[in-house]
C-alpha cells in the first residue's frame, strides 16, 4: 500500500490548482536543476545538485544515470541510500495530480538498490535495501528488502531468500544459461 497524503480540490481538476500547492519559482528552479543533472555525466555533480538545490537525501556513491527524471515539484520528498544505481530514463514521482484531489508521498529508496532503465516509481513507496527493480517496471507498491521485482503491474519475481538460493546454486554449479 502506498503512503500518500490526500488533498481534495473543488472546481477544476487539481492540476489547475498547482501554484496554490507549490510556488512557481520553486518549480522553475527545480526544473532547471533537474534538466542540468539529467544531461551531466558527472555523478558527483549530480548528487551535489540534488542535495544542495533540491534538498534531497542522497547517499554516498549513489549513481543516477543519464536522463533520470525526478519529481519537479516535490523532490525533497525523495531519499536514496548509499551505493544505489538509478537506471537510465527512470522517473521518480512524489506527487500525483488527479481530477478531484492531489496526493503527496515520500519515496524512500534503500542502499545497494538497483533500479533498471525506464522504470517509474510512484509516490509513497519504499524500496528496501539491496532490492533489484527490473527495467521498465512500474513500482506502485513497496518492494521488500533484497527482492527482485519487475513488470507492469509490478510483481515479486524472487524474494530475498529465493534470490540468495539461486545465486548460491549459480556459484556452486555455474550458470548454464549461455551453454548450448
Automatic annotation (TrEMBL):
GO terms for molecular function: acyltransferase activity. The keyword Transferase applies. Pfam families: Hexapep_2. Keywords: Acyltransferase, Transferase. It comes from Lederbergia graminis. This is Acyltransferase. InterPro entries: Hexapep, Trans_hexapeptide_repeat, Trimer_LpxA-like_sf. It comes from the Bacteria.
Amino acid at each position: 500500500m502506498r503512503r500518500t497524503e490526500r488533498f481534495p480540490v473543488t472546481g477544476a481538476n487539481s492540476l489547475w490548482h498547482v501554484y496554490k500547492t507549490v510556488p512557481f519559482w520553486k518549480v522553475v528552479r527545480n526544473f532547471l536543476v533537474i534538466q542540468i543533472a539529467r544531461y551531466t555525466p558527472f555523478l558527483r555533480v549530480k548528487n551535489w545538485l540534488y542535495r544542495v538545490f533540491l534538498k534531497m537525501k542522497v547517499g554516498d556513491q549513489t549513481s543516477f544515470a543519464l536522463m533520470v527524471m525526478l519529481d519537479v515539484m516535490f523532490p525533497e520528498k525523495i531519499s536514496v541510500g548509499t551505493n544505489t544505481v538509478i537506471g537510465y530514463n527512470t522517473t521518480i514521482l512524489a506527487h500525483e495530480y488527479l481530477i478531484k484531489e492531489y496526493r503527496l508521498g515520500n519515496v524512500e529508496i534503500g542502499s545497494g538498490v538497483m533500479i533498471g532503465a525506464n522504470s517509474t516509481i510512484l509516490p509513497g513507496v519504499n524500496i528496501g535495501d539491496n532490492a533489484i527493480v527490473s527495467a521498465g517496471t512500474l513500482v506502485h507498491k513497496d518492494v521488500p528488502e533484497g527482492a527482485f521485482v519487475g513488470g507492469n503491474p509490478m510483481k515479486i519475481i524472487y524474494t530475498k531468500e529465493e534470490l540468495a538460493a539461486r545465486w548460491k546454486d549459480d556459484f556452486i554449479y555455474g550458470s548454464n544459461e549461455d551453454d548450448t
